[in-house]
Amino acid sequence: MASTFPQGFGYVGAALVSTAWLIIGQSFTVSAARKNAKIDYPQMYASTAQQKESKEALIFNCAQRAHQNTLENLPIVWISTIVSGLQYPVLSASACALWVVSRIFYTRGYITGDPKKRVGPVYMVGTFSLLGSFLAASYVSGTWVYQNITA
């Protein structure tokens, strides 16, 4: 059984690779914040007392949370991007790329030490792009199921 990918599916691959670069960048940000806050491994977050003592501890917690939240969302991003990309590769890759850019802004806002700055207009664009990708993936997979049931 031969498989073919639609023209433009390479963009989907490039968009997915950009998510790996995002995670690598966030990892470096967390590592630098950990070092500045003097939080030793294996402690995952600075304690409340450490946060009260130093702004660096709060920034570390914010960087760690931004990274963790991104990791929590990645399975949805990857699945939605791949499935929707099988029928709509340019739309899918664009939605994933917008999500990645929004996550950069999300992280930059979060690591100010004011968690409210993590959400802004660019973040919302990324959220809606992910929703669009998820809806497109749902449509594509629903279409496949319907075609196989009625065949």
UniProtKB/TrEMBL annotation:
One of its GO terms (cellular component) is nuclear envelope. Keywords: Membrane, Transmembrane, Transmembrane helix. Its main location: membrane. Signal peptide: none annotated. The keyword NAD does not apply. It holds the Pfam family MAPEG. It is a multi-pass membrane protein. The chain crosses the membrane at residues 76-101, 122-146. GO terms for molecular function: glutathione peroxidase activity; glutathione transferase activity. It comes from the Eukaryota. It is found in: Membrane. This is Membrane-associated proteins in eicosanoid and glutathione metabolism. It comes from Coprinopsis marcescibilis (Agaric fungus).
